[in-house]
Amino acid sequence: MKEYTILAVISVITTVILDRTSKVGVLKKRVFYLFLAVILFFKLLVNGYLTASPIVIYDSDFFMGLRITTIPLEDFFFGFSMVATSIIFWEYFKRREA
Length: 98
Hints:
By secondary structure, the chain is mostly helical. The protein has one domain. The protein is built from 3 helices and 2 strands; from the N terminus they run ααββα. Strands 1-2 form a two-stranded antiparallel ribbon.
């Protein structure tokens, strides 16, 4: 079973639902995707180094097997979810405080 893939997809779906239900709308903002592109550049550098070396090794039984350079596609899903969820919570609580 591809547990890593399933969890990565669930994390993206949860993030989209969180953005919609919180009514923050981070995923509708152009600046978010610019910010995400900058983060992805550094992800390619750092995660690419870690997955190309024997530091981080993925068992192919648990993910799709699709990679961008040496990085499993699921890592990008999780990265998107972590960044977006952090910003959603930040904006939500900032708005609640005001």
